[in-house]
Amino acid sequence: MLSLCTWLTILLSICSQTPAPGIRTDLAIYDPLPVTLPKAGGVFTDPVFGTQLMRVTDETDGKENQNAYSYWPSLNKDSTRFHINCSGRAMLFRLDPARFALVGKEPLFGRKPPSGYEPRGESAIWSGEDPDVLYCHEGLHLWAHNVATQEYTLVKDFTDVLPPGHLAQMSKSLDDNVFAFSRQDPQWNLVGYLIWRRSDDVLLLREDRTNLDEVQVDKSGRYCVMKAAEQGKGVVQARVIDLETNQTEDLIDDEPDYAPGHSDNGQGTIIGADNWRNCLTFRSFATPHEFRTVLDLKNDWSQDYHLSLLADNEDWVLLSFYVGNDLPQSGVFRNEIVQVATDGSQRVRRLAHHRSVYAKQYWNSPRANIGRDGRFVLFTSNWEGSGQRDVFILRVPPL
After folding, report:
1. Distance of CA 261 to the CA centre of its chain
2. How far, in Å, CA of 159 to CA of 197, rounded?
3. What is the distance between the alpha carbons of residues 226 and 238, in angstroms, rounded to a whole number?
């Protein structure tokens, strides 16, 4: 018979062992374990969460490689192509999703549109219906760019209805019908926004204002949220616009509305940060003053995050956490990519450490975005503060 001392020794040994790699659904603290990075195209395993990751870029692509943002889809409809920025140039990559392998790389805009000016790669958005088509803009022109043929189709020329300037921060409905843009003057100063419907060529709304952060159309194309470039007690931080009824609802930054800060839109819904109560909220655009808590971060005010609701399955929202300040932290979710249930249960699927050191530099934040089919996530990382900024793909285990 083993002595009590022996049993205690065995128990302590078991408890001190590193847990086997796997997705975590608890709220324990998991620090990253050492990883040797492969060259571009190489696949490796997160030693804590057991997920597969691919390094997309390395030094051969330059030192400044990144995806755009969490609500601008990097991946096309069927996850066979994605676009990112490689040291100042928009690049198109081809992906074999079944083998999880890169199969090609080329400039995103191999030729310029008939205007002679290259479109912006940052807010270019894949078609919701055609995996070969990317919507993009330059000046006051909106183009449909077929990346397979490198051909352009002019969708709309706004020069006859707008003063000289530029379109910026594009947003659109999933059926490629309703588009929203911020507007800039010829010197790139923000001057307002517009919302346009393609099916009947109608300018639904145009407002001149400089107190503007962005406008975002929801996936259905019925609703749009306009966010002001101002926050604070009693401030109208967001306005919900019903494009069918022309009704608007203003959301106050603090109580009673706790307007969403960083956010993304679903089908008639919005999930965003409540910057007053340190939580993530869900609300329907049909009843925007009503909301529920999706995730409560309690007293950990050190966490900043970006959200992505691009997947067709909106039961889960993707968050990429990063430490954005010097406030005390709990350590939970530190520098992690996490899926959170949107039903209010606060269930989590912790997928990977992104290992980017923010150091108060915006482009070091991960800005992870998820593909339509929910199989892949793209994010940016300077990997332990190496000075080399690269793009990575996370292969998401099935739900």
Report:
1. 14
2. 16
3. 6
